[in-house]
Amino acid sequence: MQIQYSKKAVKYINGLDRLTKQRIKEAIEGLTEQPPKGDIKPLQGFSDGRRRLRVGKYRIVYNYYQNGEIEILYIIDVDSRGDIYK
């Protein structure tokens, strides 16, 4: 499985401290396993199957895509709990 990040997600992750970056990275790697690890819920109001992963006070919004035979985990956004749903 391949992991791709949006520019917005990369910018937010790069602004975090080292320990938080590590926690987020480990959580994202857990999404590549079968079944995915973590506190995962589907997002309401989106028809493309977006989900969110909770990592402490942070939320990771992601989706899975199929590109030929390769499955892609696309990280749409990463932000704190209060700001991500705006």
Features:
86 residues, 5 strands, single chain, alpha+beta, 5-stranded mixed β-sheet, globular
Describe this structure in words.
- The protein is α+β, with helices and mostly antiparallel strands and 86 residues long.
- The chain contains 2 helices and 5 strands.
- It has helices spanning 7-14, 18-30, and strands at residues 2-5, 39-42, 51-55, 58-67, 70-80.
- A 5-stranded mixed beta sheet has the order 1-5-4-3-2.
- A hairpin with an 8-residue loop joins strand 2 (39-42) and strand 3 (51-55).
- The chain is globular and about 35 Å long.
- The N and C termini lie far apart (29 Å).
User: What is the residue-mean pLDDT, rounded to a whole number?
Assistant: 92
> Spatial order of the strands in the main sheet?
1-5-4-3-2
- Tally of helical segments: 2
Rg measurement, Å: 12 Å
Largest sheet: 5 strands, mixed
What is the helical fraction, as a range of percent? 10-25%
- What are the segments in which pLDDT stays under 50 over at least 5 consecutive residues? none
> What best-fitting shape do the alpha-carbon axes yield?
globular
Strand content: 35-45%
Number of strands: 5
Distance between the termini: 29 Å
Indicate the structural class: alpha+beta
Following the backbone from N to C, one meets helices and strands in this order, namely: EHHEEEE
